[in-house]
Amino acid sequence: MINNIALTGCGNVGTALLELLHEKKDELKEKYGYEYKVVLITDLMKGAIMNPEGLDLEEVLAAIKRDRSFNSFAQAGGSFGELLDASGATVLAECTPTNLKTGEPGYSHIKKALSRGINVTTSNKGPLAVAFDELTKLAGECGASFSYEGVVMSGTPLIDMIKNGLAGCSVLKVEGILNGTTNYILTKMGTGMTYADALAEATSLGYAEADPSGDVEGWDAAVKVSILTKIIFGLDVPVSDVTRIGITLVTPQHMEEAKRRGCVIKLIAGIRFDALGIHLYVMPKEIPVDHPLAAISGATNAVTIETDNLGEVTLTGAGAGRRETGQALLSDMIRMSR
Ligand code: HSE
Hints:
By secondary structure, the chain is an alpha/beta fold. The protein is built from 13 helices and 12 strands. 41% of the residues lie in helices and 23% in strands.
């Protein structure tokens, strides 16, 4: 079966997905029997292009590099629903920027696709933050798959590990580093770089959100623990209920003082239970240098899940990045096609 891919949001992550699909076309077919055509791409800035027979990815990628737009192509017109119908899409990769308040435009894109029985993978945290239950239920009702590996730890398969590898375990506690941008900034500040320069580097490397205040103020990590709480425990804890302190007040002096105490500062996110019930938090903490989390540098993330059957299980890997998040979408698409 040929998978007809529609892509919404052709920025850093969407473009990386197209590059991976193009580079690995033969390998995907040989190893996984995964065959595809990209039939529709829509992007707020670049425009919309469609070809039900399959767009020429070589040409599309060259245009993105050269013009940062689809001006050299005939633009496809119509509502998003009409474009999905006309393109014959069987899977949607939704990569528009995150809006934690409304979930838009990803929320509407995902609803339109699922209601047509089209499988969806997304790297966009917004729709999950505002409508996790609604979208999951809609997928079930419409016989479509809804996957979101890329919303936490980019392509590092944390969500797959929780849903499949840890099936049968009870989770007692979760703690780790869940934001690549802030870990990158703190790592660089530890080598003497200024906060502003480190943030600029994290942005140019494609780690930061479109609005990086979401990273540095802890919102991104907060939404990730909220989503993990839903996946692991089935509990709704809104982002507004997460104890949240970002890294904007962390100074080089704080880092020096931590160093004198044999520690490094990390933005730690977690889920724990106490006498009052479940508690979600994101905050800078001093971590002893011999603690495993102290060695997690750059945009790498790590999370330790304490379980009844396995004790502590720690997963470390890429937490952000273009190709790394493109990989999450690709792995979801291969899995959904099986
Ligand atoms: N801005 C996010 C981060 C991207 O830095 O972790 C990946 O979710």
